[in-house]
């Protein structure tokens, strides 16, 4: 699954620079995640870095974008030009 930022986001700016896929961007009110770019850091790190640094714990899995570990790895390979 990709991740999603909930409306509990306080716009602290710490998640955006941590995303290796540049999937996080400033939305109209809060930061948002582009599901097509989010790999939950699969291929880069052992855990999603945005979740690690988020001070308010507002980045859960997005139930509308379910993906397996294999699908996330394939997305990573595509995004990094290895596929």
UniProtKB/TrEMBL annotation:
Residues 1-29, 31-64 form the 4Fe-4S ferredoxin-type domain. Keywords: 4Fe-4S, Iron, Iron-sulfur, Metal-binding. It holds the Pfam family Fer4. The keyword Iron applies. Gene3D superfamilies: 3.30.70.20. NCBIfam families: di_4Fe-4S_YfhL (NF033683). This is YfhL family 4Fe-4S dicluster ferredoxin. It comes from Marinomonas sargassi. The lineage of its organism: Bacteria, Pseudomonadati, Pseudomonadota, Gammaproteobacteria, Oceanospirillales.
């Amino acid at each position: 699954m990709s991740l999603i930022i909930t409306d509990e986001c306080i716009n602290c700016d710490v998640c955006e620079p941590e995303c290796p896929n540049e999937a996080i961007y400033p939305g109209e009110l809060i930061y948002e995640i582009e599901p097509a770019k989010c790999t939950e850091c699969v291929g880069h790190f052992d855990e999603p870095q945005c979740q690690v640094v988020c001070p308010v714990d507002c980045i859960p899995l997005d139930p509308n974008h379910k993906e397996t570990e294999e699908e996330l790895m394939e997305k990573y390979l595509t995004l990094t030009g290895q596929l």
